[in-house]
Design goal:
The chain is built from three helices and two strands. With about 80 residues, it is mostly helical. Helix 1 packs parallel to helix 2 (about 45-65).
């Protein structure tokens, strides 16, 4: 990958764009049918993780305030944040 989600603003902007697009696509579908798992088994530092997850959640919530969003913990989902 030419960009790194954890360090490159352009990568984060692209990720937010895509999650907002998905939120628009599935808006109105119940959470029992559609939920979003933002990043599968992330492995980064906590500061970067929190920055990225907050941006993604804000993007999704700007389109669909009630969508179920799952954010795995750090260290491949083993460490709660």
């Amino acid at each position: 990958e030419p960009l790194n989600l954890w360090t490159d603003e352009r990568a984060l902007e692209a990720a937010v764009f895509h999650w907002k697009h998905l939120a628009e696509r599935y808006k109105g579908r119940p959470n029992r049918e559609v939920s979003f798992d933002l990043i599968n088994e992330p492995n980064t530092d906590e500061v970067s993780y929190v920055r990225v997850v907050r941006a993604l959640v804000e993007g999704i919530r700007s389109v669909d305030a009630n969508r179920l969003i799952i954010a795995d913990g750090l260290q491949y989902g083993n460490q709660p944040v």
